[in-house]
Design a protein that fits this description.
Elements lengths: L45 H10 L14 H9 L40 E2 L7 H8 L11 E5 L2 E7 L5 E6 L2 E4 L1 E4 L2 E6 L8 E5 L6 E3 L11 H9 L10 E7 L2 E9 L5 E6 L12 E2 L5 E7 L6 E7 L5 E4 L15 E2 L10 H8 L9 E5 L1 H4 L6 H15 L3 E4 L3 E2 L12 E5 L6 H13 L3 E6 L3 E2 L20 H4 E2 L4 E3 L5 H17 L4 E4 L2 H5 L21 H17 L4 E4 L21 E3 L1 H12 L2 H4 L3 H5 L10 E5 L11 H4 L4 H17 L3 E5 L29 H20 L13 E8 L4 E7 L5 E7 L5 E8 L8 E7 L16 E2 L10 E7 L3 E7 L1
Parallel strand pairs: 1-5, 18-19, 18-30, 19-22, 22-26, 26-27, 27-28, 28-29, 29-30
Antiparallel strand pairs: 2-3, 3-7, 4-5, 4-8, 6-7, 8-9, 10-11, 11-14, 12-15, 13-14, 15-16, 15-17, 20-21, 23-25, 24-25, 31-32, 32-33, 33-38, 34-37, 35-36, 35-38
Helix pairs in contact: 1-3, 7-8, 10-12, 17-18
């Protein structure tokens, strides 16, 4: 912190725009200060006095030996009672009139001449101790001192403008000059106790006077209902109360700021508008709510800012706004004032979504990382030109974005969030992101966003120890530290923190029309001993390992989102056997709509990684998922987590030579799309790229270039398979109408371990069947008999609807090219059966012809 000039000293020469106030059209580039704690200034400076006052009650200059506060002294000096009642309240209001000019006090620097007719007002001084607290950033109620206040003998006008040479008050009766008291505080006493309309004319060295509104005469911009809901943890649109908001108050345009920092001794606003020096912009505390508020006239969209938090321990922390709806592009860390002017064009989609029954509808999800999907597309709007068409070409119903919230470290892929309410500025503005979502909706694509309420990074500028003490994180270090990622967990038992997160979930759905939230790392939230050894965790009140506060938070979040946002789907990444993850909250469940089936993913990939000759010993790995398939509502994920950190790309997990690897992947995808559950596939796997995902390079699109890559046709074949899997899937209600009920599935032969074979039938709600037969051996099976459901009243003919060994997909073209007629030979508990040709390392789907 830059020490202020001692009283009576000439202000230093500074640029004309320094602390000139937001009404000035001139701005200098941001000079953001390091977001590090700083010790108070040495004794003797105003910062040191303020720090001592805050930390040593015995030497607090704001309290005299008789117990009177500095506020009482200020009231006495102004001629009012200690309770703030003007001594002359009963006297009739006198008209505002100019007063006789007074001589410039000794020590006040000579500067530009005051406007013609400007008269020097009598002083309305404050006790020095109050000024010390004010300019030191440790005052809880600067609005009680600054601005205009009726007092005995007139109306006191007090303005804090460090480095200013002169401050003139302009009223309907003309200009009148204020007197510099100390440390940039200018005061004056107008005649009359009725507060007039006025503006300030502020002069800085070497510049023309600047006309400004006085923000300290503006009433709080948060109402009692807002503060009550915040205190109760029930403000479901918290972003409309806290953060920064461009608005006009009492005819004055500007920006309102509000931040929750209940442990702070003082909060000031810093930004590019005041050269990151908050002396002139202290915020007021709004009672027991813990909220600090300030309205700054003239500030507009695009302003960069932070909060300067003065802690009870005397530290100073520069913090980004937790409710900022836009942020500076990393590596910058400032918050940015924003307002939306976007006009949505997806009304039809939103109406249709509100009526959707997700569990009985098709859902095929393409997961991607926005910054690296197409590295040549460097903005949300550029991606909007390409992504919808690509998804439509491949017939995906939804896209899932890895976290789009602002994050400081690109290598975290967005999973260490610093700005929960701000889309990352790496790709554009919040309205640009709205445009991307809107465009996807108009192409019939739903949008799911990864959401990370499990933990947050320790960066100094963000949420960690936000007001100098544990606030968003638990005070118990055994609960606060996340051992896997070096981050901090949220304190789900604190109402305001829970409110921050619940409102954030609602925010993305309401403000950005997001159709689904995939909640990351749910298991780490639910268990107090997650990744912790014995003795390194604190049990709950019943001695158990369950995080009951986290479970209650997830229930509240799901219930609130479903109530406020019809048709939105919440999805849990949860890898344990916690009961009732997708059970409704009114039945004791967590209330998620879907859950990632991590068990299916792990077991099936273990099976597929084995050489076919060994698969018979692992047959239960590929079939076990059906034991619990209906215990929850599942998504089958092949996500980013499975193709990084040495796990290899999907095709590279498969055994054999290049042809066999691709054949295994094709057979596996055919099995996956036919298995009960929705499905998700990570980018690059749709065309069988051979290397792991690299967040800096993105998918290996060049392998699809037939002009430069010899194997391009084989990669294109895999992509055609994914396209056709999705198309056949959409056309087959049997594959999605009864995903969540046992009525939709029946094994035909789940025990052919020696032959590496699986066969099962899926049923639509009207009983229409689709049969899937998987041959996970490299052997062609001629004349293999498979039991098939009887077709009442129809010719007993079945046809291939999909064969992963088709030549167009890069296969050998083995299969059943003509419809197959069943015989009256009971087989696999079915009254009829047929002999089929099963291609090697392939999945075949059959439907009634």
């Amino acid at each position: 912190m830059t020490p202020l000039d001692p009283p009576g000293r000439t202000p230093r020469t500074v640029p004309a725009t320094f602390l000139a106030g937001p009404d000035s059209a001139q701005r200098e580039p941001s000079a953001a200060r390091r977001a590090e704690p700083r010790r108070p200034a040495p004794d003797g400076g105003p910062d040191g006095a303020a720090a001592r006052a805050a930390t040593d009650p015995a030497t607090d200059p704001a309290t005299d030996p008789a117990g009177n506060t500095a506020g009482d002294a200020a009231a006495d000096a102004a001629g009012s009672a200690p309770d703030g009642t003007p001594a002359a309240a009963a006297a009739p209001a006198a008209p505002v009139a100019p007063v006789a000019p007074v001589a410039t006090p000794e020590g006040l620097p000579d500067g530009p001449a005051a406007p013609p007719g400007a008269l020097r007002l009598p002083e309305a001084p404050l006790p020095p101790s109050e000024v010390d607290r004010l300019v030191g950033g440790m005052h809880h109620d600067p609005h009680g001192l600054l601005g205009a206040h009726p007092v005995h003998g007139g109306t006191a006008i007090r303005v804090l403008r460090p480095f200013a040479e002169r401050v003139v008050v302009e009223t309907a009766h003309g200009p009148a000059e204020l007197t510099h008291q100390q440390s940039g505080l200018f005061t004056g006493l107008l005649a009359g106790t009725e507060v007039p309309d006025y503006r300030l004319l502020v002069s800085y060295p070497g510049s023309e006077p600047l006309s400004q509104h006085d923000g300290y005469r503006i009433a709080p911009t948060l109402g009692e209902l807002d503060l009550h809901l915040i205190s109760e943890g029930r403000h479901e649109q918290l972003w409309r109360a806290l953060g920064s908001h461009v608005r006009t108050v009492d005819g004055v345009p500007g920006t309102a700021f509000a931040v929750w920092a209940p442990n702070a001794a003082g909060v000031r606003l810093i930004g590019d508008f005041n050269h990151w020096d908050g002396t002139a912009h202290p915020m007021r505390s709004l009672g027991s709510s813990g909220v600090w508020e300030l309205f700054v006239p003239g500030l507009a969209e695009g302003t960069q800012y932070k909060y300067e938090i003065h802690t009870r321990q005397g530290w100073v922390l520069d913090k980004a706004d937790p409710l900022a709806r836009a942020a500076q592009c990393p590596p910058g860390t400032a918050s940015v004032v924003t307002s939306s002017s976007y006009r949505w064009q997806d009304d039809e989609w939103m109406e249709r979504r509100a009526r959707a029954a997700h569990h009985r509808a098709p859902m095929s999800v393409y997961e991607l990382h926005l910054p690296s999907w197409r590295p040549d597309l460097t903005s949300y709007r550029a991606i909007a030109e390409e992504l919808p068409g690509y998804l439509k070409e491949l017939n995906f119903t939804h896209v899932e974005f890895m976290p789009v919230m602002e994050h400081p470290f690109g290598g975290s892929w967005g999973y260490q969030v610093s700005g929960y309410y701000a889309p990352t500025a790496r790709l554009g503005s919040p309205d640009d992101f709205r445009h991307l979502v809107d465009t996807l909706h108009r192409h019939g694509i739903g949008v799911i966003v990864d959401w990370v309420p499990a933990h947050f990074p320790k960066d100094d500028f963000a949420l960690a120890r936000f007001d100098g003490e544990p606030l968003y994180e638990p005070a118990d270090p055994l609960r606060a530290e996340h051992p896997d990622w070096g981050t901090l967990e949220f304190d789900y038992g604190r109402t305001e923190v829970r409110n921050f997160l619940v409102a954030n979930a609602v925010y993305w759905c309401e403000e950005f029309h997001i159709d689904g939230l995939r909640v990351d790392a749910v298991a780490s939230m639910l268990y107090l001993d997650y990744s912790r050894e014995g003795g390194a965790w604190t049990p709950n009140q019943y001695g158990g390992r369950e995080n009951l506060d986290a479970a209650a938070f997830l229930q509240e979040m799901n219930a609130t989102v479903y109530r406020r946002c019809p048709g939105v789907l919440t999805i849990a990444e949860e890898s344990t056997a916690w009961e009732g993850v997708t059970r409704p909250t009114d039945s004791g469940g967590l209330g998620f709509g879907l859950k990632w089936n991590m068990g299916w993913m792990h077991d099936s990939l273990v099976y597929m990684s084995k050489e076919p000759v060994h698969r018979k010993y692992h047959h239960n790995e590929i079939t076990f998922s059906m034991v619990y398939a209906y215990s929850e509502n599942y998504v089958l994920p092949i996500s980013h987590d499975e193709v990084v950190h040495g796990k290899q790309a999907l095709v590279s997990k498969m055994p054999g030579d290049w042809w066999q690897q691709r054949a295994n992947q094709r057979a596996y995808l055919g099995f996956m799309w036919a298995h009960p559950g929705k499905q998700l596939l990570f980018m690059g796997q749709e065309f069988a790229q051979g290397s792991e995902w690299d967040h800096e390079q993105g998918p290996q699109w060049w392998v699809l270039d037939e002009q430069s890559w010899p194997a391009a046709g084989e990669h294109l074949g895999m992509r055609r398979l994914v396209r056709d899997l999705n198309r056949r899937y959409l056309d087959a209600p049997a594959l999605w109408e009864q995903d969540t009920t046992p009525d939709g599935f029946r094994w035909l032969d789940g025990g052919a371990a020696e032959d590496n074979l699986l066969s099962f039938v899926r049923y639509a709600a009207d009983g229409s069947p689709l049969v899937a037969v998987c041959n996970f051996s490299p052997v062609v099976r001629h004349g293999h008999r498979v039991g098939l459901p009887a077709l009442d009243g129809r010719e007993q003919l079945w046809e291939e609807v999909l064969n992963t060994d088709a030549e167009t997909y890069g296969g050998a073209g083995v299969g059943n090219s003509h419809p197959v007629k069943t015989e009256s030979v009971p087989w696999n508990d079915q009254p009829r059966s047929a002999e089929l040709v099963l291609p090697p390392l392939a999945t075949v789907w059959l439907r009634p012809a």
